[in-house]
Amino acid sequence: MKIERIDVYAVRGPRREAVRSGTTGATPVTASEFGVIRLVTADGCEGLGEISITYPRIGFTLCHAARRLIVPRLLGQDATRLPELLALIDTILAGELSAPYLRAAFEIALLDWTGRQHGVPVWRLLGGKARERVPLAWGIYQNPPDEMARAAEEGLAAGFHAIKLKVGRALADDVAAVRAVAAAIGPGIPLRLDANQAWTSVPAASHAMRALAAEARVAWFEQPLARTNLQGMRLLRQQAIAPVMADESLQTLHDAYEVARAEAADVFNVYICEAGGIQAAAQIFAFAAALGIPCILGSQAEMGIGTAAAAHLGVAVPNLTEAWETFGPLRYVKELVRPATRIEHGYLHPAGGPGLGVTLDEDVLAEWTVGE
Ligand SMILES: [Mg+2]
To answer: Which residues are bridge partners to 136 per DSSP?
Structure first.
């Protein structure tokens, strides 16, 4: 079945709230600059994919690469030969660091297409359902402590199963935020504290982690050190302050192997877009299962297509032990897909119907599409 057309839309999706990353000093992000892939075969069957990347802000650059490097090579190819097409994309991108984001967008589109071709949802292509819905955590932004405490309370009231916040600012600010949030939500809910590589040495990280762990029950410290500092992460684990999660250190299956080999993490944070697709993320989950390491699926604030992919993986993956962070569509002022992403009482549900089960809202697509 020949691929006849592939449209790549550069989209700018306005956020409900500006995102301040405490660690990069970058200007607040008020919109996500992502890409949407629409792949159509000769019989008119479509598949949708999403280029999702928040940091660095290269979503539009990846749209250019998709149009100029990948689309011309995929046109006329047989859409049923998914492994060959992914190998071709890998060859074209030749190990470029951002390659998995593009690979993932096309893989999602091709799996959506495959599901639609056969009239089955993507979760069936992944082996079937292990559960009906995916428990979610809620992420709160860096704001004054009382606002963060209120946001955490609202998250729990909405049914979310865990609370995540960013740390890595001045320690006094982090302590005040964690203290306020912990007091607001009580001891029953452990906090996920994400440092985004902020601490510059093992002693600095250790000092901050001890101070924060004294304020709250900590589920884990996420990426306390630079992504390449696996030895430092191992040393922090040995101090047993709280579990250590690898995020930036771990994108692909090969990274998962390196993190595991270095004994650098107690928990993995996996992303479909960073792994290189739904199947690649599932492979990391399988690898982690073999090692007895818990994993979650994290969020790049994916829009409706990327989150639909997460929902299908989430109901199919055998080892889901901790709430995922795939609440991306709630970050935007509008939904890009129909039906709207179903997040209820802290659970993400896959849409019914074949493939991912979602179609583009053409009005929102037109509104968000920019000439990049
Ligand atoms: Mg993180």
So the answer is: 324
- The SS3 assignment for 341 reads coil
Closest CA relative to residue 70, chosen from 81, 86, 49: 86
Q: Which residues surround ligand 1, an ion (CB under 5 A)?
A: 194, 222, 247
Enumerate the CATH 3.30.390.10 domain ranges in the chain, comma separated.
Answer: 3-119+363-368
CA of 17 relative to ligand 1 center, distance in Å: 18
Q: Is the pTM of this model over 0.85?
A: yes
Ranges for all domains in the chain classified under CATH 3.20.20.120: 125-356
> Given this structure, which CATH class describes domain 125-356?
alpha beta
Ligand 1 centroid distance, CA of 246 (Å)? 8
**Tens digit of pLDDT for each residue in 239-254?**
999 999 999 999 999 9
Verify whether residue 166 is a known catalytic residue.
Answer: yes
- Please give the class, per CATH, of domain 3-119+363-368: alpha beta
Question: 310 CA to middle of ligand 1, Å?
Answer: 17
What's the gap in Å between 247 CA and the centre of ligand 1?
5
For 231-288, write each residue's pLDDT tens digit: 999 999 999 999 999 999 999 999 999 999 999 999 999 999 999 999 999 999 999 9
Q: Which of 129, 164, 166, 334 is catalytic?
A: 166
C-alpha distances in angstroms, 82 versus 73, 108, 112, 117, 134?
Answer: 14, 11, 12, 13, 27
Three-class SS state of 161: coil
Tokens of 40: 């159509």
354 CA distance to ligand 1 centroid (A)? 32
